[in-house]
Design goal:
The chain is α+β, with helices and mostly antiparallel strands and 372 residues long. It has eleven helices and 17 strands. It has two domains: 267 residues, 3-Layer(aba) Sandwich (Rossmann fold), CATH 3.40.50; 86 residues, no CATH class. The protein starts with a strand and ends with a helix.
Amino acid sequence: MKLLYVKANHFKNAKDNFEINLVAKSKKTAEDKEYELQKIADGLYVYSTLAIVGKNASGKTTAVELLDCCYSILGDFRLEGKHYDYRDIELDMIFYHEGYLYRYTTTLQEDSSLDNKAIFIKQHIYKKKYFKTKLKTIFEEDDYVELTDFGELPEDTSKVFFVLKKKCTRAIYFDSFGEGVDTYGLLFRALQNYKISEDIFMNIIRIFDENIKTIEKMDDHNYKLRYQEQIRIVSDKELVYLLSSGTTKGILLYTLMVASLENGFDLIVDEIENHFHKTLVENMISLYKDKAVNKNNATLIFTTHYCEVLDLFNRRDNIWIARSEGKVALNNMYDNYEIRTELLKSRQFYNNVFQTAVNYEELMNMKRKLMR
């Protein structure tokens, strides 16, 4: 299963008909097919990496939370535990599965009797066989045939269940805030659930702090930490404060990255550079582009303020620009901007080609006030 497209109405502060297209649309060179793209079916390619960029409060987080919303429905057939209002959200998503294209539409509502769960109304599922010769029409509605022979489900369960049949991790969303004292509990569950070897885990630890020799889970809230030559039993609260925030967040994120690469699900990261050295971000991007490592068509989707990271992208259609003018909008660098391809993408950001520059005038106003 691979998500190809999503459109939403009434989602958070996004404008209506808010769209994200995950299918490669510009010319596909042999080099792109080797590094930039993942082949899903004959002629059908999605991206190895996708970036959403923009200045502060431009709506980058809204975009990745919409993707997380869709992946939650496709993976768990439910939507729960989110911090935003489910009421009246209209979703229209297209995904590829076992040779067919499926279009799923629904409206979400809230039910006060449920514990922060969405209920699904007005659900429709449409299906058509994928053909390379009809690649340009995969998003057109005319060829889809509605599926109607479904049984009954609880109102908090999506009818996508009847297509995908079993729960499966389709993507993991990693936000910029971290998980606090729950970090190491999540870490060890991920190690177990995704069968990550101890050898790779120790590799990850040494990337972030060479002084950590081992971390072992004792019980749900206590860990044995060997730091340099000292061995200590520490609680989860102590461990989070003992190690740096960058180490804590980095170990968890890199563990989830390994799980994504080995199992073929997508990884969504909000503010990928938060607490990280730029080299670590570049390393993550390179691993998703390397087919010897990324053997199962995983995609890295991230937001960033590091404009220089975009210079690692050979394509433009996998870069989205977030802007907010009352409502959040996304513009695709390939579709919506005429830019000089010979110039570095980072340079064009700094030249404010995409209207994403920091408000220099207000910075100078602040400086003048501080000088008085």
